[in-house]
Design goal:
The complex is a heterotrimer. Chain A is mainly alpha-helical. Helices cover 70% and strands 0% of the residues of chain A. Among the domains of chain A are: 1-78, NADH-ubiquinone/plastoquinone oxidoreductase chain 6, subunit NuoJ (Four Helix Bundle (Hemerythrin (Met), subunit A), Up-down Bundle); 137-179. Chain B is built from 3 helices and no strands. Classes of the chains: A mainly alpha, B mainly alpha, C mainly alpha.
Chain lengths: 179, 101, 477
């Protein structure tokens, strides 16, 4: 069951990703992108990380891609769709894809390329004042626990990162008053 | 064949490669940026797979932060694209030739 | 607040102060900005920003002896402080409070990059500084060039971030650790696998972008040319220093023990490409800022050369890179400052020919330019010369003296020395314009007080670091 689901979602994700690259119209690209991101989210579910899967679909495939679509519609650029794509670009793309994919295949499926789970021990360091939840769990509880103990500093940094993005977007998009 | 770490890492690497090819061949900044997001997503998929098979939580939590950072970066990136469009009326990289000596 | 939180708080006190300062700048502008004119708002924001920098430096001072990363943070604060003075002294841009606040946030990112001890923090600090710098590069909303520069910087930066992240995920996958120290311990017993090589090459690509090393340099000339001068100075000085100190630490902690030769070859190619491309392309530039960008690519080659010895002697590499990029940073902030003063006066200061007759218009500015340019070129007794000499000396000293000529680094040092001679030619072109070329414009230049202060500090720093390097180096070793 898991096998067939994996192959289904993997095929969907890669097909959608290729569609993003080859599609002439940015709106179609965005639609393909949403499908590809849902595929990534589905793979998170298969990897026993349902919390991240939901997050991926809500934030990425939902909010972020809606923002993309919004901007595409706002700018309303379709002059690109009319320019013919030179065959050199197509050839270049195909050659790149073939070379890189071959390299990936050779790398990942070569002998001893990846460690097997057995040779990696999982003994995270203890936290000050609390025992470590440590091992991989699927529940959202372990996220919450880690975020407010071991990962306190990253949470703060990520918060300020969002603040910076907000300040930046407001200043960049505010209309210049004619002085 | 049993689905294992190899499958997920291969899948993530292929997604990364497709994104990279898109960045290199496309000329529309919006599509380039989508392909960039695809590369980031590929990295998150690899991280979750490694996290699952290494049996530590770090990778999964890393992904949590990547999703946050990517959302912030998308906001800034799209604001820059819009700001450029307002002044130059284009989103194509070929037409960005203001900056030459 | 439990013990862990307060420990975290006191360890990151400088960053906390800077963040608080940034929020204060924004709040003060929100409350008082309505009642005051643009110059007053800018002065107030810069003043508050400088105060925050001062307090952050004060918080660092107890750790300066014996802790080299604290010294690195202090140098970053200094460079960012000079950038703030440039904002106060030369900028005419709107939203001064946001400009200052974002500069402070970028400094927080730099500071975190120097102290980060796990991959997650490294990534977040990298992104914190990058995202802030994208916004700063596009801050001049009246100029299409600024928007274009920001977009290019952003697109290349995002590619670099994606590469860095995939490299990190491979490192994590191979070891199951994100703490740098434990990661290094596990990596050192792992056999060299092709995946590890790929991971390191991806990480090098990510940092190559930060350093503007060829072939990841394509954003640099455009960003240097199009970004507002203070932002360009920050990108050239602070961002580069922070990124390279971080790379030294990564190399030192998780070194290249299992795959020495493969990674050394990759690094050597990067160095050779940067040295050649940067210095040769700079010869034909007629735009001052593009010239600085290409010369920066050449300098990146020398910095990577020093980073090559980091696994053998991390302490020495850290000190050398810090000294080199501090002097380089002071000189480039100064050079951008001179260009910014010209732009503030004439509305142009990009072309080399805009510098014609500078000596008649402002001897002070010309003397400063002389110091900065000669330091970049590496002419004694300025700090740039000593930094370069130190770099070459230490790199050669770390090589095996019996098999000197078989090491690629030996030949790279020779190449770097040869390229320094080439560099002298294009640097002197700038000085020729400033001192000899007849003036088209003879109006004397007006320099605002903060800009004067920034230029004076930068020039004095270069001269003092050049004449008394031992006082600085004593803190390091």
């Amino acid at each position: 069951m898991v096998d067939s689901l994996f192959y289904f979602f993997a095929a969907m994700m890669l097909a959608a990703a290729l569609f993003v690259v080859v599609s002439r119209n940015p709106v179609n690209s965005a639609m393909g992108m949403i499908l590809a991101l849902v595929g990534v989210g589905a793979n998170f579910f298969l990897l026993d990380a349902p919390f991240l899967g939901v997050l991926q679909i809500l934030v990425y495939a939902g909010a972020v891609m809606v923002l993309f679509l919004f901007i595409i519609m706002l700018l309303d650029v379709d002059q690109a769709a009319k320019i013919p794509v030179p065959w050199t670009t197509v050839l270049f793309g195909l050659v790149l894809l073939a070379v890189f994919s071959g390299a990936v295949w050779w790398l990942v499926n070569g002998a001893d390329a990846l460690p097997t789970p057995e040779n990696v021990s999982a003994t995270p360091a203890a936290l000050p004042g609390a025992e470590n939840p440590g091992a991989f769990t699927s529940g959202a509880k372990s996220f919450g626990y880690s975020l407010f103990t071991k990962y306190m500093l990253p949470v703060q940094i990520a918060g300020f990162l969002l603040l910076i993005a907000m300040i930046g977007v407001v200043t960049l998009s505010k209309k210049q008053k004619q002085a | 064949m049993e689905i294992g770490l190899h499958h997920f890492v291969t899948l993530a690497s292929l997604l990364f490669v497709i994104g990279l090819v898109g960045v290199l061949v496309r000329r529309n900044t919006l599509v380039i940026y989508m392909c960039l997001e695809m590369m980031l997503s590929a990295a998150t998929l690899a991280l979750v797979a490694f996290s699952r098979y290494n049996n530590t939580m770090d990778g999964a939590i890393f992904v949590f932060f990547i999703i946050t950072v990517a959302a912030a970066e998308v906001a800034v990136g799209l604001a820059l694209i819009v700001a450029l469009f307002r002044r130059r009326e284009t989103v194509m990289v070929d037409e960005l030739k203001e900056l030459k000596h | 607040m439990n013990a862990y939180y307060s420990e975290l708080f006191s360890f990151h006190l400088p960053e906390v102060i800077l963040t608080g300062g940034a929020l204060l700048v924004l709040a003060a502008d929100l409350l008082l900005g309505k009642f005051s004119s643009e110059p007053v708002r800018r002065a107030l924001a810069a003043l508050l920003g400088m105060l925050a920098m001062g307090f952050a430096a004060e918080a660092l001072s107890p750790y300066l002896r014996g802790d080299t990363s604290a010294l690195g943070q202090l140098c970053l604060l200094g460079l960012s402080g000079l950038t703030l003075l440039l904002i106060a002294g030369t900028s005419r841009l709107r939203h001064p409070a946001e400009h200052v606040a974002l500069t402070l946030f970028a400094t927080v990112g730099f500071s975190l990059m120097v102290t980060a001890n796990n991959l997650l923090l490294v990534f977040l600090a990298f992104e914190l500084s990058s995202i802030t710098l994208y916004i700063l590069a596009g801050f001049d909303k009246s100029s299409p060039a600024s928007a274009e520069a920001a977009l290019k910087y952003f697109l290349y930066g995002s590619v670099a971030a994606a590469f860095l992240l995939f490299g990190f995920s491979l490192l994590y996958g191979l070891t199951g650790e994100i703490e740098l120290a434990e990661l290094g311990a596990k990596l050192s017993v792992l056999p060299a696998s092709p995946l590890l090589v790929i991971a390191w090459i991806m990480i090098l690509a990510g940092f190559g972008y930060k350093a503007a090393a060829a072939p990841f340099h394509l954003w640099a000339p455009d960003a240097y040319q199009g970004a507002p001068a203070p932002s360009a100075a920050l990108i050239a000085a602070g961002s580069k220093l922070a990124g390279m100190l971080l790379l030294v630490r990564l190399f030192a902690e998780i070194g290249f023990s299992p795959l020495g030769p493969a990674l050394q070859t990759a690094l050597a190619l990067l160095i050779a490409a940067s040295l050649l491309l940067g210095n040769v392309a700079a010869l034909v530039q007629s735009n001052f800022r593009r010239l600085l960008a290409y010369s920066a690519i050449g300098h990146a080659g020398i910095v990577l050369l020093m980073i090559g010895i980091a696994p053998a002697d991390p302490q020495m590499a850290f000190g050398d890179v810090l000294y080199y990029l501090l002097t380089y940073g002071l000189a480039s902030v100064g050079a951008f400052g001179v260009a910014a003063v010209l732009e503030a006066n004439d509305a142009r200061g990009q072309k080399l020919s805009d510098f014609a007759g500078l000596w008649q218009r402002s001897p002070f500015l010309t003397i400063c330019l002389l110091v900065f340019i000669l330091s970049l070129a590496g002419v004694p007794p300025l700090a740039g010369f000593f930094a370069k000499f130190n770099a070459f000396y230490d790199v050669l000293g770390s090589l095996d003296s019996a098999a000197l000529t078989s090491s690629p680094f030996f030949w790279l040092v020779l190449l770097a020395i040869a390229m320094s001679a080439v560099a002298l030619y294009y640097y002197l072109q700038v000085l020729k314009q400033a001192f000899i070329a007849p003036a088209e414009e003879t109006r004397p230049l007006r320099i605002a007080l903060p800009a004067t202060t920034a230029l004076l500090f930068a020039a004095a720093g270069i001269v003092l670091l050049g004449i008394f390097p031992e006082h600085f180096l004593r803190l390091l070793f």
